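Methods: example folding runs. The two proteins below were folded one after another, and each record is reproduced exactly as written to the output file, sequence line first and structure-token line second.
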Amino acid sequence: MVYLILILIGFIGGAIGSLAGLGGGIVIVPSLLFLGDSTNLLPPITPQLAVGTSIIIIIFTGLSSTLAYLKRKKVDYVSGLIFFIGGGPGALLGAFLNERLNNDFFNLFFGLLMIVISIVLAITNKLRVFKLKKGLERIYKDNDGNAITYRVHIPIGISFSFLVGILSGLFGIGGGALMVPLMLIVFRFPPSIAVATSMLLVLLFAATGSIAHMVQGNVEWLYTAALIPGAWIGARFGVWISTRLNEKTIVIIFRLFIFLVGVRLILLSI
């Protein structure tokens, strides 16, 4: 029964993560903490174990989604590697900083982060798009053959991705919820390219951060074994559903979900 629940959590995390370019950790981490603290299904689990386990799962979510998006030629490798220059070291630093957080501080900061992400998701489409005149020019041709030009300002991209990488390693999230708005608003990525490239970053950030978490023994491998199959299938399902359902409706529901979970985590820390 427990493993079926973990498979389901992995599936939901993978599906939502790949659909919105988030990674899925924002579902997996609070779910593990809830099962360990508020039910008898799992023994109590520390934030370190929840984050370390989540970040391993995110590797498979990111890999599954990236492979699916690659087939659709949606991933901007060049921009992704530029962002990884900052995000990789940031993920390592965040993973080591994670050891310094106790349960109350973790719940408080993670709860605040979830609320911030829910707000970011709500206002992304309403914010004014920047018009960068400098930066690495990228050109994407859509399905109709129209050329869409956007630019990546390398110093801004590396600096911001470094901060996102820290959050990824610290809280076990993919970081896509923050990278996607950056790509859409500042660099004017086409939405489909932003989401697909975000999943590549989720994969790279998680793979880097997982090294530190494994060294520190922050991975519960039995839970990982149950979560991975669900996350892998869920990620593929998320990519499939993104081309068939109203993505905005799903994001609205997900935004409300993470806002409420964020509030609950903050209340637990008080």
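Second run, written to the same file directly after the first:
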Amino acid sequence: MNQFMNEIRNISDLTTRASIIEGFTAIVLSFVLSLIITYLYKKTHKSGRYSQSFVHTIIIMSVVVAIIMIVIGNNIAVAFGLVGAFSIIRFRSAMSDPKDIAFIFFGMAAGISCGLGFYLLAIVFTIMLSVLIYLLYAFDYGGIKSSYKSLKITIPENMHYEDVFDDIFEEYLDYYQLNMVETTNLGTMYQLTYLIAKKEGISDKDLMDAIRERNANLKVAVGMVN
């Protein structure tokens, strides 16, 4: 009887050690994979609002999700309990870039795979998706190179702006549209805002020089469309 109990204890100890080793492996691997994911995020980030705390969040969530999957295992009761507990959490911060949400799910998917013990799948999944995301970034897939620009012209208040630049626009532009007229300099001048598309081979300087000869050398600005 004592020998039988000793064998049970030995089996229990081996099971506990195996669980600890698996848990440690899942946590370390999810951390390493999330580092790869966040490095890719930094390399492919384009918008001006970059947040270091968001990068840390991806890493933390990946590891936390891996731990949660280890805790749940095949226990349905624990799974429902965790769902109830996490339903209390509310995320208040809005994502400035929709791609940020995709990276959060990327990190969570890696963590889930590690937590369930699919280590090879987690590694292959992370590498393949990282390559695909980088290719989309490198080839700028889906990007549109717009030829439209914004043109702002300041003119004296005694100048009739309706048709004053039409001949210049016909010579230098493929498309133009007057979007806004507003007073400036305490009402002594007008500022005209156009949406324009230049003809091929026409530089901004050529267009601006032609307009300055007509608007008494007042301010002319060409910029990107918001």
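Comment on the second run: The helical segments are 2-44, 52-72, 76-86, 98-115, 119-138, 166-172, 204-212.
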